[in-house]
Write a structure and sequence with these properties.
Number of helices: 0
Number of strands: 11
Structural class: mainly beta
Helix content: under 10%
Radius of gyration: 13 Å
Shape: globular
Distance between the termini: 38 Å
Length: 118
């Protein structure tokens, strides 16, 4: 079972990027998955989450109104559309999934770097 995060890159402030998290090896039904981000020296931050069937999207306070999470069940992929980016959004972004309801995020992708220039 693998999660492959992609789509990071360098973007100017105010710009947009779309991250993808593709799952391989199994499907996750309606288990929750999430996007997290981390900056060196800081704690990991929850960005957004959704169930693999597309239900129950939720967002961290710092990205509400700017980021949109969605799921494509046919492609076993979750997307994070990021808009109105600011330098504070610069981080390594990770996707992760739970493999049981009410459980921890047990499977993590490798991370994709997002850099927002001012």
């Amino acid at each position: 079972v693998q999660l492959q995060a992609s789509g990071g890159g360098l973007v100017q402030a105010g710009g947009s990027l779309r991250l993808s998290c593709a799952a391989s090896g199994r499907t996750f039904g309606s288990y929750p998955m999430g996007w997290f981000r981390q900056v060196p020296g800081k704690e990991r931050e929850f960005v957004a989450g959704i169930r693999w069937n597309g239900a129950a999207p939720k967002y961290g306070d710092s990205v509400k109104g700017r980021f949109t999470i969605s799921a494509d069940r046919a492609k076993n992929t979750v997307y994070l559309q990021m808009s109105s980016l600011t330098p504070d959004d610069t981080a390594v972004y990770y996707c992760a999934t739970q493999t049981a309801y009410g459980g921890a995020y047990t499977t993590w992708g490798q991370g994709t770097l997002v850099t927002v220039s001012s």
